[in-house]
Amino acid sequence: MTETIRTSTSAPVNRRHSPATGGISPKGLKGGQLGLLAVVVLGISTIAPAYTLTSALGPTVNEAGLQLPVIFLIGFIPMILVSLAYRELNADSPDSGTTFTWVTKAFGPWVGWMGGWGLLAANIIVLSNLAGVAVDFFYLFLSQLTGSPELADLAANKAVNVLTCFVFVALAVWVSYRGLHTTKLVQYSLVGFQLLVLGLFVGMAFANWSSSETAIPFSWEWFDVTKIETFGQIAAGISLSIFVYWGWDVCLTVNEETTNGKKTSGLAGTLTAIIVLAIYLLVSIATMMFAGVGDTGNGLNNTEIHENIFTALASPIMGPFAILMSMAVLSSSAASLQSTFMSPSRSLLAMGHYGALPKSFSRVSSRFATPGFATVAAGIVSAGFYAVMHVVSENVLNDTILALGLMICFYYGLTALACAWYFRHSVFTSARNLILRLLCPVLGGVGLFVVFGQTAVDSLAPEFGSGSEVFGVGLVFVLGVGILASGAVFMLIMARVRPGFFRGETLRRDTPALVVPE
């Protein structure tokens, strides 16, 4: 990382669309590097099915019980609605800033800045979480490979755990810094491997489910939402299921680097969400049939195995092939750790480019055409966040997952509502626009904000999550709402330091023409 760097504003731009005139403008990223397949692979990698399932199956079952499959379906509804809103906004204004840029164009700089902050906070939280899972499964893999159980215990040593996390983050930053060519080589191999292992896991669980002491037969009642007792359970379950879908929007983040980014990125985001839904339904049904939902042994409600469900179930289901599941979760978290860096780095790049953050964030590597400074900054912050959380939280993975759900609901919901407002003058020009620019965004956005509000209220109690608290307030609430509040404070500081953006000089609030070319 010794080559020189240049700011994105040094790239040739059309003066009519430069930041000085408040329009969308290029940032120095290299276009045409990704096709549809590559973008879908990046989306699946960022979602990381193996990692998200091993982290979220337990907490979601704890909230939803046997209704786990229907919770995944309900959680998918706002995701697909929001993804359609993202497609509309991307087709009009493809920009690596995504939420930050589009919310600014719809609601103005103040709301846009907070939307960008929500996106950044979600990514920083999940990057630390990804690193934590990678550390756990790295030492588990070494233990299984060498036949030395004591190696798995190294993950419980806080000093060793945090130092190993730093190494993983540094490697992910290095790959991300080197650009999309290196990223594609890494992602194709890691994503392909984890999907093959998940397929083997599902097949063996279905084949052997009746031999398990905790097995339960499949029932269509698992898809009956009326079996859930309270709305709070639904909200918490949806918040957790939203976490397992989150990440498809990276497909839109790379729109400036994708061939025909206006169309390809939006289509890739929708395809990614649908593919992941199919994976989750198969894995959740197979896992429930084999393990059941009891609170002892391999039961999915056993809180002792919530952090890593696949650690407990891999051996009973896969026998001598259990080590493959450890490798799959390790590769899944490592792949996602690397690909997830693309989202915060490009959002930071856009915020620096349009003057919402210090100009240093707009620097682009002259050798690799990547947001070099922003990528390194995201790595440092995420590693630091993980180190702090590992000290203050009794169950760092569960608490950060719950807090992440709040962040996702906030910035996804805000982006969806921004779509409806931005296109308000064209929604009644056709049935298509009415559905895709008004109904879908409003339903998705309002639904996510309802979940956000319910989860925020519930998380005030310390018993929500791991039981950790800060002055009597639940740690999940402190993380979720507290980080948003700190963003508002930081925004006021930036408004004093860099007032141009907040006056609409670099990225103006705008409304498209009544007829937007397809």
Summarize the structure.
With 518 residues, the protein is mainly alpha-helical. Helices cover 67% and strands 2% of the residues.
Give structural notes.
- This protein is mostly helical.
- It has one domain (32-502): Amino acid/polyamine transporter I (Up-down Bundle).
- 67% of the residues lie in helices and 2% in strands.
- It contains 19 helices and 4 strands.
- A two-stranded antiparallel sheet has the order 1-2.
- A hairpin with a 2-residue loop joins strand 3 (469-470) and strand 4.
- Helix 4 (99-107) crosses helix 16.
- The longest helix is centred in the N-terminal third of the chain and has 38 residues, at 109-146.
- The radius of gyration is 22 Å and the shape is globular.
- It starts with a strand and ends in a 16-residue tail after the last helix.
- The model is unreliable at 1-18 and 514-518 (pLDDT under 50).
SSE layout:
Blueprint (H helix, E strand, L loop, with lengths): L4 E3 L28 H12 L1 H16 L3 H25 L6 H9 L1 H38 L2 H4 L5 H20 L2 H29 L22 H15 L4 H4 L7 H31 L17 H10 L3 H19 L1 H12 L9 E3 L6 H21 L3 H27 L8 H28 L10 E2 L2 E2 H23 L1 H4 L16
Antiparallel strand pairs: 1-2, 3-4
What share of residues are in beta strands?
A: under 5%
Could you tell me the radius of gyration in angstroms? 22 Å
Q: For the residues shown, what is the average pLDDT?
A: 85
**Given the helix and strand composition, which structural class is it?**
mainly alpha
Key traits:
518 residues; mainly alpha; Amino acid/polyamine transporter I; two-stranded antiparallel ribbon; 4 strands; disordered C terminus
